[in-house]
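Practice set, problem 2.
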Amino acid sequence: MLTLAVSTLAAQQQDSAVVQRMRDIETRIQIDVDDFKGREFYEPRKKGKMQTHRTCFFPYISYSPEGSSRTLFGYVGTWTDDWLMLDGVIVLIGEERYTYTLDGLELLNLRGSDVTTGGYSVSCREWVHLPAKMGDSEFAMFQAIADADDTTEVRVRAHGTDYSRDWTMRPAERRAWRDLVFYYRNFGLRAQGEDALVLRTDYQPRKPPIVEYAAPALHPKPRPHDPIKVAYPPGLVPELVEDTVLVFAVVDTAGTVSEAHIEKGSRFAALDSAALAAVQEAHFSPGEFHAQKAVVKMVVSVPVAPAQKAEE
């Protein structure tokens, strides 16, 4: 029984470490959604920057929510002065050589090209998408890139039927391979639902509604956590002056006062200033409008009296 308990605890700790790493990786990836194809693409956030280089080789995940199927792709891109007729890649990891070449119908579907002109110069842009799933022989190359330590050089050749282009894999590319291969293997532990929305490239944070305190659907309404205490102006104590000051306040979704001013003051500016300062320093329970935290405009009634009078 003791052995079983120790094994269970070790498994839970391992799962926790995997989840923690997945959350860390999600700070460096984004989700691009194609509603027409019904697919989600998990890509490095630095994808655009990597594609500005003359050569690049980085991974991304294509996922179909309907079919619950996913594929890990390697994207090879080149900018050259002449056509390579790109068809694959050769990777050298230390002394180990890996080759991935497309042909036939795959090459027709997974290869693309474009031409850009600038003045008298012409640049030929080519790219191929190299798919692999766990268990495929091609996946071994992707895993080897991810597993290569920092002291091992990773060299890449974008291979074409006419020409080729060589380079040493850059740190950003290597980080992307480590992240996306691990993410692909542990895809079931990815952020989902509301947590995954912030990863989408089209994500726009929903602004909280701004409502009046009297709004019928505002429930619960903001309430101060503690009684609002007023630092009574010392100069007024002998006169035993007391009054009520109305302070307009805007309470944000965190329960703090983001804006405040005197709505209706007393006869004394010192009393007004003391009431205003007390409201600005107060902390409220947030209000909710249709079950969503809201920014609430409200008027706070603040009684101001000398300490000895207030105690009576």
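Problem 2, part (b): a different protein.
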Amino acid sequence: MLIGFGKAEQHYNGQLAAAYIFYMMAGSRFRRCRFHNTEEENHLKLHYLALKERSQLDLEARIEDALLETGWFKGMQELTCVVSGRREGTDYCLTFRNGRRDLRVVFHEKGLTEIIQIAVSQ
């Protein structure tokens, strides 16, 4: 899936802004969702806030489309979720853990995003 970053988004690190948007939109589908490390959450938020409003709205629309494609969030409104984020080389990764199914989202430097569902054994 391609969530490309424009020149303005690259200037402020669209990769991290996209991660923040994905976290906020995906997190809203749970009963409760929190970032494991509030400093990391604030770091992502700063990159989001640095974007111009038009860039924010465009990136939000593209990420909303990506979320709808996954179907992963059906039935999650009764669950809580903890999110962690970290850099892996030039990629930025978010992991959503809810005890039933985990979701790993990889934001590549050039805008390609992988959404990987992980089944949790019980």
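Answer key, part (b): Residues 7-119 form one domain. The first strand starts at residue 32 and ends at 35.
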